[in-house]
């Protein structure tokens, strides 16, 4: 990016901070294509990538007063997008775990207070477990179990070996099993 572009971006961010919707539209027009491509690489579905772009720009608008003129705006957008993807993936894990819990306990789906409490307890357990996993291990686990990527795909994306990916998955699963060994399903 040349000096003129940086100055223009800084003044556009300043205008956005003041609530200028034209500045917001200008930033959207410039950054949406790159952000969409980035999101599409993460989720591999057009509609999901479009939703992520919309969520990112909603967050930018909501947090516009916190923006700094010298902000690496690309990095900021990509960081928000990545967090949205990981949060959606974590939510899918929660839903999967809850479905497994219901299947294990023989409970039919419905709105039952006891099951809802158990669901939130299980979600909290999962969140605590994910928080303890090292970032790369957590990323590998999410890519494998939530996004459905093969070990080979993950290895290529992370520029590492299949055995390294298998090692991360085995350690993640071991940690999850260890944490759940005392959890009562029923």
Overview of the structural elements:
The chain has eight helices and no strands. By secondary structure, the protein is mainly α. It folds into two domains: 3-83, Orthogonal Bundle (Rna Polymerase Sigma Factor, Chain: A); 86-180, Arc Repressor Mutant, subunit A, CATH 1.10.10.
Topology record:
Elements: H1 3-17, H2 21-43, H3 46-62, H4 73-105, H5 113-132, H6 135-146, H7 151-157, H8 162-180
Helix pairs in contact: 1-2, 2-3, 2-4, 3-4, 4-5, 4-6, 5-8, 6-8, 7-8
The counted number of beta strands is: 0
Number of helices: 8
Counting helices, strands and paired strands, the structural category is mainly alpha
CATH uppermost class of the largest domain: Mainly Alpha
Task: Characterize this entry briefly.
The chain is mostly helical and 186 residues long.
What are the defining features of this structure?
single chain; 186 residues; mainly alpha; Rna Polymerase Sigma Factor, Chain: A; Arc Repressor Mutant, subunit A; 8 helices; 78% helix
């Amino acid at each position: 990016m040349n000096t003129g572009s940086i100055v223009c971006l800084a003044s556009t961010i300043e205008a956005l901070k003041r609530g200028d919707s034209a500045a917001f539209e200008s930033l959207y027009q410039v950054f949406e294509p790159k952000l969409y491509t980035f999101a599409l690489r993460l989720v591999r579905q057009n509609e999901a990538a479009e939703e992520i772009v919309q969520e990112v720009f909603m967050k930018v608008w909501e947090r516009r007063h916190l923006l700094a003129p010298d902000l690496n705006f690309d990095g900021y957008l990509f960081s928000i997008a990545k967090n949205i993807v990981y949060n959606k993936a974590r939510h899918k894990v929660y839903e999967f775990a809850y479905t497994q819990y219901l299947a294990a306990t023989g409970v039919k789906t419905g709105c039952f207070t006891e099951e809802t409490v158990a669901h939130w307890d299980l979600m909290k357990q999962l969140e605590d477990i994910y928080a303890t996993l090292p970032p790369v291990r957590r990323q590998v686990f999410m890519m494998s179990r939530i996004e459905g990527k093969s070990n080979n795909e993950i290895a290529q994306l992370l520029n590492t070996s299949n055995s390294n990916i298998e090692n991360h998955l085995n350690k993640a699963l071991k940690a999850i099993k260890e944490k759940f060994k005392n959890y009562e399903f029923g």
